[in-house]
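ok trying again, last paste got cut off:
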Amino acid sequence: MAWYPANCNAFPPLNCPASKRGRARAWIAALAKLEPWAMTQLSSDLQALISTIDQDALLADTQGWSAINTGTANLDGLKDQAAALADAFSVLPGEVKLVDPAPVSAIGADGAEFEKQHGQHLTLSVRPDAERRLLFTGHMDTVFPKDSHFQDQTWLDDDTLNGPGLADMKGGIAVFLHALKAIEQSDVAEKIGYDVLINSDEETGSLASAPLIERMAQGKYAALTYEPSALPDGTLAHARGGSGNYSLTITGKSAHAGRNPQDGRNAIVAAAAIVLKLKDIQTAECPINPAKIEGGAANNVVPDHAVLRFNIRPKSPDAAQQFEAALAALIGDVQQAHEVSIHQHGGISRPPKPVDRKAQRLFDLVRDCGASLGQDIKWQSTGGVCDGNNIASCGVPVVDTMGVRGGAIHSADEFMIVSSLSERAALSALVIHRLASGEEL
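nice, full thing came through this time. structure:
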């Protein structure tokens, strides 16, 4: 048997340095718990569906992909990863394509706008003429740059593996690949169509893939995104706030700090004034984080240039709109009071993600499928953001933490609970099966 339930004793994978006797005991415990559970909870068809999920193959894919450094700026690594993913997803029906990123600009420390380079995105379309179509998304990039010291994998115990991108989210990509492989072998495959999108820039806000996400979300009945679970116990992220990143370039006038400072217009002072006013307009519904001021000159020169960077986290669409109006007024006030010019770059890239009726029914479906697998699925709201925000803004119900259980993401302590690979693949396969069988949201 290739799959085992979430509530069985964790057993060591093939390449873990555990004894054969210990592995055998774990198999016996797993099978003992599986038999009564499987007979009472799942039909023979569903048992056959999940029995095709191969834990060792899931782990091999995840470890292989984790070994490729895919920091968002590592274009060579992303190219290698895209090729590996294209090969892996080619087993599914449909044509795998690599799509060029959309143009994205940023503001340098000197205030000049420049184009940021990104890797290609992977897409796959299966049965595009099906009446009911789903969207599956993930990201191939990580937060670990090419020169990061965190490149290797380390077993922490028999069921916990530490390594870059294992949880966030190369394990998640493996989960939905293998769930879809199982579905394609089932009797419901022809009843459903789906698109796959794996982008290369999620960790920096998905600006180079946002148009593609929006286009691929159109007309979808539901979406599943494979970020790691919100908590190591498998808890899902529910409603999410939004996120916006801004750069304000302030241009003043230089002058001698001793002879004629009155003739200068200090860009650093204007930037500081904006920071204080930003905190004044902050609300509980829209936290604001001034993050960095760049610029200045020699101590005896009134600085004529500064760049202020900040992030906002609106919890609702109304809060986002109110902030935009307040920011416009603030910029006008500071320009007039300090006699500087201010150029705004950026904005809200992740809209807030409330959970509407259809989205809640999708959460309920995931919970019910989890219960049939012995998994206790819970959820909680979070201030974090992901591509699920973008998908939800298109009116598509989405659950966006269907990936592996793990934690400490974005740090060298990142870990994945290895048994959750097959656990979550089985969960996904059942959810997809229910949707393909006509489950209404």
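cool. The mean pLDDT is 92. The chain has two domains: 20-102+118-240+353-436, 244-350.
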